[in-house]
């Protein structure tokens, strides 16, 4: 968001992204992917890091193939790192790393997943004590349990009632904040 004479002005592109995300959450994954890709093309590789981070993050959610999800989540993290000094981005790191951990779980790469869940836990200090922060911290705890150190296979049973190793999709709070 930008500030104009003491008032907060919404970021038009983030608003457009949010509208597409609502389409995705409404069940039209293919159309959401198509529109997010069009926005990605509009923003370009040199676009604002916050826009690229947001787009890549949500594009990952529209893919079924864990390798494709991983590629988009890595783009999101890379863009976030370009904008690392901002408060908005610091609050995103836990979710970004949690999604990467979930991607690596789905790919059977337990050590990479553990590395990212540890990074998510470390970054969680930037989260507020609100419903979003509580949700992310709870999701990190569930992922830590699934990745319990000392398991021979390295990954807990996805049928453990904890939602499996899927993506953390509780970003409702920061969708509004962006």
| Residues in β-strands, percent | under 5%
Class computed from helices, strands and strand pairing: mainly alpha
Main sheet summary:
2 strands, antiparallel
Q: Residue share in helices? A: 55-70%
Number of helices: 9
End-to-end separation:
6 Å
What is the radius of gyration?
16 Å
What is the N-to-C order of secondary-structure elements (H for helix, E for strand)?
A: EEHHHHHHHHH
Question: How are the strands of the largest sheet arranged?
Answer: 1-2
What's a quick, concise take on this entry?
With 178 residues, the protein is mainly α.
What do these coordinates show?
By secondary structure, this protein is mainly α. The chain is built from nine helices and two strands, in the order ββααααααααα. The chain has helices at 12-25, 29-43, 49-61, 66-82, 87-90, 93-106, 110-123, 131-146, 172-177; strands at 2-4, 7-9. The protein has a two-stranded antiparallel ribbon. β1 and β2 form a beta hairpin. α1 runs antiparallel to α2 (29-43). The chain is globular and about 40 Å long. The termini are close together. The relative contact order is 0.11. The model is unreliable at 3-7, 150-154, 157-165 and 171-178 (pLDDT under 50).
Give the helix/strand layout.
Elements (H helix, E strand, L loop, with lengths): L1 E3 L2 E3 L2 H14 L3 H15 L5 H13 L4 H17 L4 H4 L2 H14 L3 H14 L7 H16 L25 H6 L1
Antiparallel strand pairs: 1-2
Keywords:
178 residues, mainly alpha, two-stranded antiparallel ribbon, disordered N terminus, disordered C terminus
């Amino acid at each position: 968001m930008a500030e104009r004479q003491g008032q907060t002005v919404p970021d038009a592109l983030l608003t457009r992204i949010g509208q597409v995300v609502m389409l995705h959450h409404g069940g039209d994954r293919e159309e959401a992917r198509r529109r997010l890709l069009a926005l990605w093309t509009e923003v370009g590789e040199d676009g604002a890091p916050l826009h690229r981070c947001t787009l890549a993050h949500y594009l990952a959610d529209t893919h079924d193939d864990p390798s494709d999800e991983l590629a988009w989540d890595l783009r999101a993290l890379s863009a976030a790192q370009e904008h690392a000094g901002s408060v908005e981005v610091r609050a995103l790191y836990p979710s970004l790393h949690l999604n990467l951990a979930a991607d690596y779980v789905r790919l059977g790469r337990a050590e990479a997943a553990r590395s990212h869940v540890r990074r998510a836990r470390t970054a969680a200090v930037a989260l507020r004590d609100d419903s979003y922060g509580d949700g992310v911290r709870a999701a990190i705890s569930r992922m830590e349990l699934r990745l319990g150190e000392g398991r021979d296979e390295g990954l807990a049973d996805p049928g453990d009632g904890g939602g499996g190793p899927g993506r953390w999709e509780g970003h409702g709070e920061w969708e509004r904040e962006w």
